[in-house]
Design brief:
Blueprint (H helix, E strand, L loop, with lengths): L1 E2 L3 E4 L4 E6 L5 E6 L3 E6 L5 E6 L5 E7 L4 E6 L3 E6 L4 E7 L5 E6 L5 E6 L4 E5 L4 E6 L6 E6 L5 E6 L4 E5 L4 E6 L6 E6 L5 E6 L4 E5 L5 E5 L6 E6 L5 E6 L4 E5 L5 E5 L6 E6 L5 E6 L3 E6 L1
Parallel strand pairs: 1-26
Antiparallel strand pairs: 2-29, 3-4, 4-5, 5-6, 7-8, 8-9, 9-10, 11-12, 12-13, 13-14, 15-16, 16-17, 17-18, 19-20, 20-21, 21-22, 23-24, 24-25, 25-26, 27-28, 28-29
Length: 293
């Protein structure tokens, strides 16, 4: 089934990241225009615009019961924002060069970021400071994710391997892969048993996280897959790609259930709403779009 967007929300340049609030009533979007916009749903009205980053925003995430927003930027910093007043509350510098990806821990107290400098930085978000630097990648890091239980971090990049890190010991414990091309996206199923990954090919790969074995592959896009995400109940798998499409698939069988058409260029990020009935997408065409299915 082909679906049209419910809302089209605009920035002045490419949109790289989207995130829903816990109650699905607010959407945040981060852009190459160096701004973060906060949108009211379902109206699509712009509530306010957060400015302070000096480069593109690569990731946004709601924190602390939606009272705060955590953002990560190519300017090598993480920042936290008070959403009651729309003000910057802290800036966390760290990486030696471009910060490319970030993921918060499930409880929001920690976050991990990856960079062109080949390192991961583990952040204490509550204290607003670095907790550790994780080294081991031999190429730039372009994707990170936390396991749902918060015990593990996975990272991937241009060295083609998915590296698994123990959060408590802050050590690499194993590797998954390799992929044939550089990694671009990583996400866990809600039960933590499956890790989905995409690289610069049209193929989505699902790995058994415990064994590290490849479980299956889905190939429905016509070009490089940029982002992947499971629905909150784990039954659906969404992917966005350079073909400007978002596909919603049966996570068990790979059957394409919905094709989301509307973007005019590469889709960089997707996010399911916590209610599982909406999805947001971010694209190079300077828009974030909201879909209901």
């Amino acid at each position: 089934m082909t679906l049209e967007p419910l809302l089209t929300l605009r920035h002045n340049n490419a949109v790289y990241s989207v995130a829903f609030s816990a109650d699905s009533s607010v959407l945040a979007s981060g852009s190459l225009d160096k701004s973060i916009k906060i949108w009211e749903l379902p109206s699509g009205n712009e509530k306010f615009r957060l400015e302070g980053h000096r480069e593109a925003i690569c990731t946004v995430s709601f924190q602390d019961g939606d009272a705060k927003l955590l953002s990560a930027s190519l300017d090598k910093t993480l920042r936290t924002w008070d959403l009651a007043e729309g003000k910057l509350t802290s800036t966390m510098p760290g990486h030696g060069t471009y910060l490319t990806c970030m993921a918060p821990s499930p409880d929001g107290t920690l976050a991990v970021s990856g960079s062109h400098d080949k390192t991961l930085i583990l952040w204490n978000v509550t204290a607003g400071q670095q907790a550790a630097t994780l080294t081991g990648h031999t190429g730039l890091v372009s994707a990170v994710a936390y396991s749902p239980d918060g015990r593990f971090i996975v990272s991937g990049g241009h060295d083609l391997l998915i590296r698994v890190w123990d959060v408590e010991t802050r050590k690499q414990v194993r590797e998954i892969g390799p992929h044939p091309q550089p990694l671009q996206g990583l996400a866990f199923s809600p039960d933590g048993k499956t890790l989905v990954a995409c690289d610069t090919t049209p193929v989505v790969r699902l790995w058994n996280f415990e064994s590290g074995e490849l479980a299956t592959t889905f190939e429905h896009h016509s070009s490089s897959v940029k982002t992947v995400e499971f629905s909150p109940d784990g039954t659906l798998l969404a992917s966005g790609a350079s073909d400007a499409l978002v596909l919603i698939q049966n996570a068990a069988t790979g059957e394409v259930l919905h094709t989301l058409k509307g973007h005019r260029n590469t889709v960089y990020d997707i996010a399911f709403a916590p209610d599982g009935r909406q999805l947001a997408s971010a694209a190079f065409d300077r828009t974030a779009r909201v879909w209901r299915f």
